[in-house]
Queue: 4 jobs
Job 1
Amino acid sequence: MFEAFYREYLEEFIEALRGLDVAVLENIMKELESARQEGRQVFVIGNGGSAASASHWACDFGKGINVGESKRLRVFSLIDNTPLGTAISNDISYDEVFTEQLKNYLNAGDVIVGLSVSGNSENVVRALAYGREQGAKTICIIGSARGRMAELADILLVIESGNYGIVEDTHMLIGHVISQYMRRVSVEAAG
């Protein structure tokens, strides 16, 4: 019984990966590399498992892509400051937890990466809308439900699955593929 479930899950995961638009993945990579070269900030946001992925992205892009004295990407996960996040959530609203932080840090031209399964997380939607008003570039990586985030994306990647596990697994795979590619390019440039 478990083995059958495992094989079914694996098949759905592989199908979701095969369905990814590689041209869009490359556009995401190019935007992140451009931000690195130009010193623009990148903010990664999400809820639940996508929040964990946002933290992991900040680690991989903040440390993992660097080689020697390579140019650094200024990347931050807005879920990582627990005291600030709980203060905003308690005193203002959880719907504003990311927007209020962006008000402190965001500059025109910075990048906001929104990770979501549903594409409808209110705090992510509001942060993306605020970011666009302020001149930020928005990247959304969402599940097949698309949601309101799809309308707020300058670069949109849809993972063709409604299974939260498959979508979140794919968030991590995308982060690893892009960050490891950026590292490889840095290694080659360092000669």
Note: The first strand starts at residue 41 and ends at 45.
Job 2
Amino acid sequence: MRRLASRLARDRSGLAAVEMALGLPVILMLGLWGAELGNLAITHMRVSQLAMQLADNGSRIGDVSMLENLSIYESDINDILKGADIQAGRLGLYKYGRVVISSLEVVPGTTSRQYIHWQRCKGKRAFKSNFGEEGKGLDGSLVGMGPPGDEVTAADGDAVIFVEIEYAYQPLVSQRFVPDALIRTTATFNVRDDRDLSQIYQRNPSLPDPVARCSVYDDAV
């Protein structure tokens, strides 16, 4: 028994296997954590790009006419919301998040008072605009839209399309690596051409297109 114990004490043949068994879980954990953080950064970039795409497209929509201001329709807004859903792909933008599109304008009859003329939303997440709902500012309470001190404002006779997105990040590996990660982003563009700011029209009033109302929380596009 003494000889056997002595041989076992001098035996080093399993040393590398023991070191691997002790170190592998740590290496694996660090690798998975790095992969999750990388995926979070990519997702944040994609959501930010979606907000810019929506704001840009919202600033361009409208009938092309050389004789009168461009009119926008509910179908135009539905189209850009559908386009964002297609662009988002597997993110599930409207299943796990919410988009709020606002038209920031000057109150008619004033020269600089800001208000949210109309607002359209899509998504199942319980999120409302951080800067107010449709009609906010008619009483002069709205400075603009954006972080305090960096608010975006519209010029008289013009409009600014302001987009907000809140998205609940869906983990690649495990929620434990990035618990309760929320992605919030905004984007804004000035309307590119002269636009009829009076209202959003229906192409066929007798058969109206769906309105993406902010009181509805769904992912149907």
Note: Residues 23-190 form one domain.
Job 3
Amino acid sequence: MEPFFYHLQQRYCLSDLAIKELVILFKPVTVKKKEIFVQPGLNERYVFFVCTGLTRAFLTREEKNYTAFFSFENEMLDASPISTGKTTQSISCEAVEDSLLYRAPKLALENLFQTSLELSNWNRKLLEERIAYFNNYFLNYFYEEKSVQYKKFLEEYPQLIQRVSLKDLATYLNVTPQSLSRIRAEI
């Protein structure tokens, strides 16, 4: 079994049968650094997981990018594999590093969730993880002073500082790159 699927099985206590069903659906896709592989306004038919590498999801408003979240190894890029009825994406996804992703059609996953209670529960766990992530962001980062945000970010994600450009980190913290440089100099 490939390490990616072994990790899923161990992390979510999935049975061999459930993993076999996921192996059938998920196919590997390689993306190069800076490659945008999900674009807003398009009908996004796939769910992505990061096997190796790092990606970021971002919104573009008034010609500025705002990073919503980063996805590390063995993390999903979406809130939930089941679609919310929306037919278009409002977020872009970009590879921060050369990355190996696993991609599965949303419709096939939705059908699988309707026939497998185990995988339906797995989908629920994925959704709970994403909700917890956003709750943490809004409760512990968003309303803090920017220097406090940065310090918390360093404590929670020390490996990310070596992997993410200051520009992308600034868009995540919602500051200008110049302000982030000043904050870093003060610390």
Note: The helical segments are 3-12, 16-25, 106-115, 117-142, 146-156, 160-163, 166-173, 177-186.
Job 4
Amino acid sequence: MTHHASVYQLDKRSQKSWHKIRAAFEVLVLSERYDEITAGDIIEKAGVSRSTFYSHFENKNAVLGKSLHPPLSVLANCIDPNSPIEPLRQILQHFWEHRSFCRLILTGTPRKAVNQMLIELLEQQIIENLNANQKQILISEAHAATQIAASQLALLDTWLLGKAASSDKKLAEAMKKTSIGLLTALISD
């Protein structure tokens, strides 16, 4: 019984550390250039030890990646025609509400990390989709994932930068249809 309680407390403590690190990271991204932020800055701002930080993350890019994994997973799920559109609409709405932060992470060095994570998530989804439907693709899954990620991020960019107005609902529909359409076009007959 004591063993379970200590494991639960460790999980709780670990979650608390993760939330502190993430909050510190977000504050730093909004106030400094991403390239100038160091792990030491995050550690100091979060008020955690170096060992605590490094037990969770390799570096600041890993903090960005873990922060974005849930919303990017929703984007990657767009290629599944059976996935509901509401989670995508909610993520887009969240991005819009936090667009100053999103604009910063969709440019420069952080953009590369976002793009890579989205490609990896899409590639996993594509492989699962192809296996489930016993289909073949014309190009590699990595190439297809790269093309779909570029399309999704282009839609996000133009919307978040105010270059093209749209409701989150219409954008979600467009992103889903485009993602499915691209994958469908790449499936061999």
Note: The CA atoms of residues 9 and 84 lie 35 Å apart.
